[in-house]
Amino acid sequence: MQTRLADFIRDTPEGREAEAILRKCVHCGFCTATCPSYQVLGDDLDSPRGRIYLMKSALEGAPVTRKTQLHLDRCLTCRACETTCPSGVRYGRLVDIGRALVEQRIPRSPADRFSRALLGFTVPRRRLFALLVGAGRLLRPLLPKRLKAKVPQAVAPAGEWPAPRHARRMLALAGCAQPSLAPSINAAAARVLDRLGISLIEAPGAGCCGALRFHLNYQEKGRGDMRALIDAWWPLIERGEIEAIVMTASGCGVTVKDYVHLLAQDPDYRDKAARISGLTRDLSEVVPLDAVPKGTARGRVAFQSPCTLQHGQQLLGAVEARLAHAGFEVAAVRDAHLCCGSAGTYSLLQPAISRELRGRKLASLEESAPDCIATANIGCLAHLQGAARVPVRHWIEILDEALRRKMPA
């Protein structure tokens, strides 16, 4: 693709990166076959190819409109197009640059600004979010149907978290939403790793990974969250007390692995960010295949592979293999590459498209009549729970139960 970037961005780091990405695109359209928003809306401007044209025009200095903003807002940033693209177009990074540019040019409506500001203020603050979730559960019978589906009826207790006792130690991110919505996930991961001779710990003061505000287009505030998380982790890393950072939420994992790029222009944090990214592993990369002794007839599981796991981190089949080795029947899922519609705050900001995608995903997941649905990301878990007919759980909780049944404490 030929480009003629405008003077205001041509010689900036973002401009050079965007130009290199744009020039890889050959307009083939393979991306449209795996783009969830295009599958729902059927508009080429709601496909990666169409959005690339819109961003190219904006970067070349053409006027941008609310229509441009709308089509970029409708993108789930699932990055399925990156998995499909034969030319290696880094669409996810390009859309970050394009959205930041459009955000500067087009003012949002008061209602849109309010909803985004509210999400950006409340969700990353763990204690405030916990208070809101608790209040939502109390008031759940009085809430409108759509909002009621977002509030979990009950939260499973975390259960025992083994005290650190092993020489091998790994660091877990508690996150902002997960402790309120599913505290049992990290605790289950700690129990599984403890049996493997690894102590899982959390760092005091470690908060949001920055993904939420960054993808709400508060990009500098999101980077501020990233720096704060690095500061909370750094003493443990600097002292050499941990060998890896383990992510139990694939959405956080893909962001932290990308710190090396997101903070590359920050002279005070780029080296630390590169170190953090290099240490970060998804939980499926840490738990060995034979963590649970091979079993039989444990039930049927349908695994919903989050976009952040299969497209963002390119980890395909790792969780399914671990569940199958433990004796679960892992059901084949039709159109497993398509997004469930959660995508962080997308389900709140684009509810109609999100509900349509969730309905399609649940139809695929439930058509094999599984005993439960497993996933690897808290956002997907909470989103699917709102309409699923079977339990939705994190895969490490399922392995933890299987391990406790198979082995004595």
Key phrases:
globular; Rossmann fold; Fumarate Reductase Iron-sulfur Protein, Chain B, domain 2; 409 residues; alpha/beta
Structure description:
Helix 23 links the parallel strand 7 and strand 8. The longest helix is centred in the middle third of the chain and has 20 residues. The model has no long low-confidence stretch (mean pLDDT 93). Among the domains are: 99 residues, Orthogonal Bundle (Fumarate Reductase Iron-sulfur Protein, Chain B, domain 2), CATH 1.10.1060; 107 residues, 3-Layer(aba) Sandwich (Rossmann fold). 45% of the residues are buried. The chain is built from 24 helices and eight strands. A four-stranded parallel β-sheet has the order 2-1-3-4. It has 409 residues and is of the alpha/beta class.
